[in-house]
Amino acid sequence: MLPRILGWAIVLGSAAIAAVLLWPQGFGLQNQWIAAHVVALRGAAAVVAGATAVVFALLALVEPARRFALAMTAVLLAFSIGNAGILAVRGFGGSGETAAAAADSLTVLSWNTLGEVPDAATIAGLALDEEADVIVLPETTEPLGEEIAIAMRDGGRPMWVHTQFFDQVAKARSTTILISPDLGDYQVVNEPWPGPPGNTNTLPSVVAEPVDGDGPRIVAVHAVAPIRWELRNWRSDLDWLAEQCAGENVVMAGDFNATLDHFAGRGIDGGDLGRCADAAAQARSAAVGTWPTRVPALLGSPIDHVLATPAWRVEGFRVIGGFDSAGSDHRPIVATLTRA
After folding, report:
1. What is the pLDDT of residues 22-54, one digit of tens each?
2. What is the residue-wise DSSP string for 215-236?
3. Which letter does DSSP use for residue 172 in this model?
4. Secondary structure (DSSP) of 28-54
5. Do residues 218 and 185 touch, judged by C-beta distance below 8 A?
């Protein structure tokens, strides 16, 4: 009798844990240790749970363990299918190109360069191919940004360069944004040191606004990763980024180190983060992982984003393949937005 009671206790406990990890925002745990990491890798979680379910299904062939094994198989299959279903709703994107840029469109490219591992020619070549108007480069210093701008000028697409850095010891402590002069003159308006109200806590973000008042506020994002000792800063970063998207005309892009699940509870007026909506979700591509490049995109985590307020309509979004060997652990992303 005792082994049977213990077995059912394990099954019920596993089912409760699976429910929490499947939809942690339903329990207010999406930003907590362990849950935040599992939910960030839904594709991998679905595969691991499915494989473990197969193991329990095989154990069910052994008479003494049949009921327990079948019950665990059901729990694990439900968890696996649930994650796969959530990913399917968010969308796996398509193989086509991003929508062609219209006259009033804005093309935003973002790529965390892992401390400038891809060279200026590679980044500039990609930006020219995509006809980018805004290029967001976390972990990139001003000198490399200037090299990219020169290469783009030579390619017929000049850019202004703006950088924020917390120190010049580690390249990860710099974030650079390039903005086309076609958008007008921009100036950086946030503080160049860590922490709210002027910046993210550990890694810098850049807030640029048009000098003449036209055009969107553009935020180049680099939130810290939710490692154990940075959880408080990570949550603070997401709160601060939501505040930056409280205006009417805002475009944000970069490495948020967060998925749509982690944004839960930080949206207003129907937005995903502040008043901003996620371009990947709008384009049904929000299940495609951008990190790490060493695993297939459908098993990775979609932590790089382009977001915009309702002043902008998403015409296209995609995670760019073909650069996994360029050295960064992130895949570049590109979105085309038009005025709503």
Report:
1. 999 999 999 999 999 999 999 999 999 999 999
2. S-EEEEEEPPP--GGGHHHHHH
3. G
4. T-TTSTTHHHHHHTHHHHHHHHHHHHH
5. no
